[in-house]
Amino acid sequence: MKKFSTAAVCAAFLSVGVSAGAIHAQTAEVLHWWTSGSEQAALAEVRKAFEAKGGTWVDTPIAGGSNARAAAVNRMLGGDPAAVFQFSIGQQLRELADQGLLANVGKVADEENWDEKLPPLIVKAAKYDGNYIAAPINIHGENWMFYNKAVLEDAGIDVPTSWDDFIAAAEKLKAAGVTPIGLGGQPWQERIMFNSVLLGVGGREFYADLYSTLDDDLLESDTMHQVFETFAALKPFVDESSPGRNWNEATNMVIKGDAAFQFMGDWAKGEIIAAGIEPGTTVGCAFAPAVDTAYIMTVDAFAFSAMDGEDATPAQEKMAQVMLEPDVQIAFNMKKGSIPARLDVPSDSFDSCAQTAIKTLQDKKTHLVSTGLFGVPSAVSGAIDDSISNFWNSADMSPKEGQEQFHEAISYAK
Amino acid sequence: MADPAQGVLQRSVENDAIQKTGRRRWRPQWTARMALIPAMTITIVCFYGFIIWTFVISLTRSRLLPVYKFTGFDQYVRLFANERWWTSMQNLAIHGFLFIGGCMVFGYLLAILIDRRVKAEGMYRTIFMLPLSMSFIVTGVIWQWVMNPGLGLQEAVRALGWDSFEFNWIVRPDRAIYTLAIAGIWQQVGLCMALFLAGLRNIDPNIWKASRVDGIPVWRVYLHIITPMLRTVFFTVFILMSAIVMKAFDLVVALTGGGPGFSSDLPARFVVDHILNRQELGLGAAGAFVLLCTVIAVISPYIYFELKKERGGRGH
Question: Which pTM does this prediction carry?
């Protein structure tokens, strides 16, 4: 720890304009990575609500999730923490809590009864030692399938509800000269598509068991083999320029009708709205084909640094409270394209896709977690991305080999 | 990571010190040593200190934060079982060979062409040097567009009517690594050219006169006389370019993102990715240390050989 602090102190020096220890009762510095237009607009809603309650918001945006996470950690180790910082909930956050670097907002959570209002899986991930160390602000869904309605109509196909249907539809589209799947060929995007296939072929129980236990038998099972076969069958439906493409470019392919489908998280709605289209109209949204209904959740959350001791300062408590206030949840999430973390917030003001998601989540059996952010340890998450991407991009790798290297990569990482 | 240029620099500083003390024998040597203290402290702490620390971390199970629970060589076992690591090491070898070789060959050829007193020499020099003013990130983005099959060169040539034209290396896992060398050479060749040109201009004109009298063809003069005389320039270029290869990170991030899959990944990107994005501090440190060992193993014999030869030469 001590040795690490040299580097951390250097990092602290770089963060200009922040005077150490200057913490006034109602001032909170908020470190986050939300720098794009819609993200900033969404966060501004939280800021407005916080300031309306008499708080002073010091904004520290740092572009790029990993940069921001590194900066937050370095500042903490250097003794000049940001009071509130955006972070992924899960194992990494618990590691910070292990070192006594985090404050808990258990008091606010008890008063507001978060336990009842948040999905249980998120409650579990946001707690350390029975106390909340983070405030989950929203839920993004990752098993969405966006599609261009006009393209589907022209080809005379319905929205597929099983992967066999999907493959048949994709053949038709390809014959008609449309790229069936607009895919951004980056590991995390390939993984999102893979997880949709996994959920679609294996079902929600299989998905939940597989990623919560990382069990060898499940990884070697026939179901898993089928998943890899289905995933491999999708390879011909992607255009040549896919590798390296950004997700928003792929979304634009669907908007323009160059591609028929995209498997992406619901942040793609931001691009659709930016193109002047109301999600659910000309660009439709549906869950990726699956044997049963489920929602693969990923969560944006804010954690709280220990300023003095384990208990949150009044400003931190106020922030936690504001973030989960129903009005703020609605205003924030409408701009962000996600849905409220609280399941008891009225859904009528949201678009049709979000309403579907909110309704789906009322059934707790549909709750699943993404492997990207908090479903599994980050080492495993990385290994999953690597091996999926390797399989997807190796033309000569058989589904059996793909399954084996997936298994092997996970067992070395866990 | 070892920066070979550092060693060269340090040596010349030492040499200067020796020369000074040699000329003025009455000045006690400790003043020179005193002057070196800041530089030495920085080198020892920031350089060797952190190498040792990296090694120590690589023996632990550290994830997000450094923890000092030692697990022996576990991280190395995991590293060597990692397919992505081996791909990136193999890529380093391919990229290093092509990039250094390409820069030297093309840089030297360009320098020779310019040295033949072409018209508008200044203009060519500027054109070849221009890419150097761009960062690797910008270079990567430009070439990403040029090589994108649906957007760049391939599409442009096909639009002209040559429908079967193919240039899709950047999206082919078996070829993506070569695109790194193309973009890298494009950027650095100007620097190599400038260094070679400086060397060529330093060649004694009498050599040319003599060779003309003897009737030796120009290409033979370059190959058998000038090239051996430029040995030190070749050495400098080699060291400079190897340093660039070893720390190649931004180019691969901007150009291919390590993809498709991880087919064009490089060790530096592997290390940064694992330390910063994946909270695998221990594994990343192990990777960094293995990379350092590899670099030392590959480069030090060459440096040793060259420096020994140089010193020996000066002695006569």
Answer: 0.83
